[in-house]
Design goal:
Length: about 550
Amino acid sequence: MARGSRHSLVIVLVIVLVAAGWFAGRVQATGDNAYRLFSQFMDVVAKVRDNYVEEVNVDNLIEDAIRGMLRDLDPHSQYLSSADYTSLKIDTHGSYGGLGIVIGVRDGFLTVVSPMEGTPASRMGLRSLDRVVEIDGESTDGMTLDEAVSKMRGPEGTNVVLTVLREGIEKPLEFDLTREVIEVKSIPYSFATADSIGFVRVSRFSETTPVSLENVLVELERQGIRGLIVDLRRNPGGLLGEAVSVAESFVPKDSLVVYTRGRVRMQNANYYSKSVRVHDDYPIVVLIDGGSASASEIVAGAIQDLDLGVLVGERTFGKGSVQSVFPLRNGAALKLTTATYYTPSGRCIHAESQRRRVRSSADIKIGPPEEEEEERPEFRTSGGRIVYGGGGVTPDVEIKYPTLSAIAERLERGLLFYKFAVDFIEGDGQLTADGFEVFPAVVDDFADFLAEQDFAYGEAEFRDDLEYIERAIKREVVGELAGDEAQFKVYIQGDPQVQAALDMLRQSRSKQELFQVAEAMSASTESSSAPPSRAEAPAKQ
């Protein structure tokens, strides 16, 4: 055996013997056999070292054992080697080459929490809740979150291929993505509609988000808004302090925003609003979906529990845990989940599905999921309304995105609407965004373009999805001519969740009226699994 390996094992054994005295004292009172198993573990290490057919690196053996010990905990609890810990500290500063995608674990699988707007992941059509089964051809089975993120990041301009499984799609989808420096605006869009309803899109949480939001709200109020939509969909969140600061724009001073609870008393903390000015002179609707996580869930949960507004959309992701980093010897560290977030009514945000490790992709059932009835615990808001726990935040009015048709899916994934818009604008130098409409002649040009691209489709499926196709063409042409916000305004015209929120606010002059309208709409949507008849499938951004 090599001298270095012998030296490493001696150090490990000395540490173990010192720890064993402390450990034995901790477990003796409980009467369990942990100390016996601890000694047995070291016997195994020694026997592997002395008898295995090939020489082993004892340091690697011990580190692998530690990782195996943590594997049965939640996905966010991990052992960080010296190199991993250094990388973690570097990642908290500066820009990096990446895809613009936030990854988590849901139902035991590596899952897209949210693609960030304006990034490669968003442009190429990755969606919240896509299950990532391969990265550059390597299975994600057994891969930790940190390992997955590390493989997705890399030098700007390099490529990575993700293979994903998507609900309702029978075959795996491949996305060839080019890494970019990721810099995302936290509030990319804010405007008032013609009928004085404010709209604020919060795409992520950062240090500047609270101040930016305050400035936006002041400007919208100057324009005389009578209602507000806050869009937290596909927002993967941020730090706890940022969430509390954003919530303070709506939560009255000294009101509980969120609290944390852990097994160790020092992890228990209550966070109250210190708001100087609250924007609550008008009814508020908050949009959420499966891509809303972490800080987004804290803000949405507080607004719902304190009866400050109504939530519309879909159940959030359920990422509500606190991680603490404990430095270890030799530059290593332990990242451990030590507490979970709770909304003011007592709902735990963290979903049970995130406590399990990534399972084999072979266990994934391809095709539409089976509908399962889920019994969820009931809680009460400050005004006595019933809200539901069980992980994540459940909307007051549930409205799901309709699934894209087969032809729309193919057109979007091939970026054909965007490519046509570029060609179309180049062919008409006098074109302007104001007043642009997709007349039949434009549709004919698009059909000719598809023929040039050798895109095969059926006339019937094209005709059946014509309304969506026309709006997608307009979305891309207007976006190229007038920028992202103009494009977004076209996009939300076909967004059933935004349109439902607008309808609710148009019918409500006060928060009390908003709650009544929401109750009636919720009863209506529960009686039908389909979204409002006038709503169409939203475009991918």
